[in-house]
Write a structure and sequence with these properties.
The strands form 5 sheets. Strands 1, 2, 9, 10, 11, 12, 19 and 20 form an 8-stranded mixed β-sheet that branches. Strands 13, 15, 16, 17 and 18 form a 5-stranded antiparallel β-sheet that branches. A 4-stranded mixed β-sheet has the order 6-7-5-14. Helix content is about 30%, strand content about 20%. The chain is of the alpha+beta class and about 475 residues long. It folds into 3 domains: about 1-80 and about 150-220 and about 315-370, FAD/NAD(P)-binding domain; about 85-145 and about 220-310, 2-Layer Sandwich (D-Amino Acid Oxidase, Chain A, domain 2), CATH 3.30.9; about 375-455, BFD-like [2Fe-2S]-binding domain (Arc Repressor Mutant, subunit A). Helix 1 (about 10-20) packs parallel to helix 6 (about 150-160) and helix 11 (about 405-415) crosses helix 13.
Length: about 475
């Protein structure tokens, strides 16, 4: 098979690039080693759209941060995933930190970030009464938002596939061989020829680059542990709460997620690329830090915990550009604010490909819209009754904690869910207080029926993560 562009990696960056390229008459394929897009670093993302003032404009990520921020409203309108601008406060406990707030404000204003304002303690108490009384000042940024990152991945790739993208899942790349007419990519399942390769392989982008003979950088994994709190705390904090940043991290945050839960974290410690464990030490670090910001928060309210790994370069900046190997484009080291910058990164990669000789002829049939999935829990009672009357599947509750209906589960399967986590991230079934204690078997039953597979063949998230075995015969 001959392609114009082969994208390696189906995180939010690869998915955003794919959708951007399908605006043009191009033959594009995306290769992902996981069973679904967004199942790597993107699913463990904090879900923050940064306000635009955090990163130094002299860095690549600092320049792309604000550009990407401005694109999320239109993206969410077109693709129907959860996004809301909740604003943020970066808080200071002493005069030295107040000076940091002034620097961040000046940095943001130099980029053109609007609405930045320094709040004194009285304003903070009025707006966020549950914050610590010891906070002296805060920098308010109204442009910050929260998003469902995995839902964004699913929507981006669905839109790209509707426009002609080929998607190959559970197929790791094994070799990349440059030749006179481009590059040959060998995976476990197939071999393909392509004019260009876009290396958006996340944590493994350095290894993919080395396959092509462009291994000029090394990535390290920085682990962040996150803790999700019970929905009874909805509204306890209404804005993103940041401490003053450090050189290694923006700090341990309090995050009011789009869906109404609070999330706290992440930590920031060097780790192995396969280490996704949460730890007692990580929990202690997170909750001792957030209690300083919001004293009323407690680990007793934790309903779920997880860890994610950021891909970090030596200079902490993004690596985006053509390599020494003709046709091989690196998009590597995309740590925070990578999610925020994703739409801008996609446009930058498009421009790089054009500069490298890729002809961009507009695709007149490209439709930037997809139909947003139904969220039963967000409908009014009248709308819920009317929907259930039209389709009885919406009268049957599959997940009681998050009020997810059988109709939503079936729609998610129709849109590509093949695993329990695929359903969870598309619908929120299993994300509530009981963490799947009641709905897991119902979801597996629907998956089994719709995919015509026995339950022992189904997995939590692919790669052998089976949830049940065949019935044992003890006769």
């Amino acid at each position: 098979m001959r392609y114009d562009v082969t994208i390696i990696g189906g995180g939010v960056i690869g998915c955003a690039i794919a959708r951007e390229l399908l605006r043009y008459r191009l033959k594009v394929i995306l290769l992902e080693q996981e069973c679904e897009v967004g199942f790597g670093t993107s699913k463990s993302n904090s879900g923050i759209i940064h306000a635009g003032h955090h990163d130094d404009p002299r860095t690549l990520k600092g320049r792309l941060e604000w550009l990407g921020n401005q694109a999320w409203d239109q993206l969410a309108d077109e693709l129907g995933f959860g996004f809301k601008r909740v604003g943020e406060l970066t808080v200071a406990f002493d005069e030295a930190q107040v000076q940091t707030l002034h620097k961040l404000k000046a940095q943001g204003e130099a980029k053109g970030v609007p609405g930045l304002a320094l709040w004194e303690s009285e304003r903070i108490r009025c707006e966020e009464p549950n914050l610590s009384q010891e906070i002296k000042a805060a920098l308010y940024a109204p442009t910050a938002g929260v998003v469902n990152p995995y839902q964004a991945c699913f929507a981006l790739i669905e839109n790209a596939c509707a426009s002609g993208l080929e998607l190959l899942l559970e197929d790791p790349v094994q070799a990349i061989t440059p030749h006179a007419d481009g590059l040959r990519v060998t995976t476990v399942k197939r071999q393909l020829d392509t004019r260009f390769v876009v290396n958006a392989a996340g944590l493994f982008a350095d290894e993919v680059a080395a396959m092509a003979g462009a291994g000029t950088f090394r990535l390290r994994a920085r682990k962040g542990e996150e803790y999700l709190l019970d929905k009874r705390l909805n509204g306890f904090v209404t804005r993103l709460i940041f401490p003053c940043p450090t050189p290694a991290s923006k700090g341990i945050l309090v995050i009011p997620t789009y869906d109404g839960t609070l999330m706290v974290g992440p930590t920031a410690h060097w780790s192995d690329k396969g280490d996704l464990a949460t730890t007692p030490a990580g929990s202690d670090e997170v909750f001792s830090s957030v209690r300083r910001l919001v004293p009323g928060l407690s680990e007793l309210d934790c309903i779920a915990e997880f860890a994610g790994l950021r891909a970090v370069t030596e200079d902490e900046d993004f690596i985006i550009g053509a390599s020494s190997v003709k046709g091989f484009i690196n998009v590597a080291g995309i740590q925070s604010p990578g999610l925020t910058a994703a739409p801008a990164i996609a446009e930058l990669v498009r421009d790089i490909l054009q500069d490298e000789g890729l002809e961009l002829i507009p695709n007149e049939s490209f439709n930037p819209y997809i139909k947003a999935p139904i969220r039963f829990a967000t409908l009014s009672t009248e709308e819920q009754v009317a929907l259930a009357a039209r389709d009885p599947h919406y009268a049957h509750i599959a997940c009681r904690c998050e009020l997810v209906t059988e109709g939503e589960i079936l729609a998610a399967i129709e849109r590509g869910a093949r695993t329990l986590d695929g359903l969870k991230f598309r619908t929120r079934a299993g994300m509530g207080r009981c963490q799947g204690g009641f709905c897991t078997w119902r979801c597996l039953g629907l998956l089994s029926r719709e995919l015509n597979l026995p339950i022992p063949a189904l997995t939590k998230r692919g790669n052998g993560s089976w949830l049940a075995c065949e019935r044992l015969n003890h006769d």
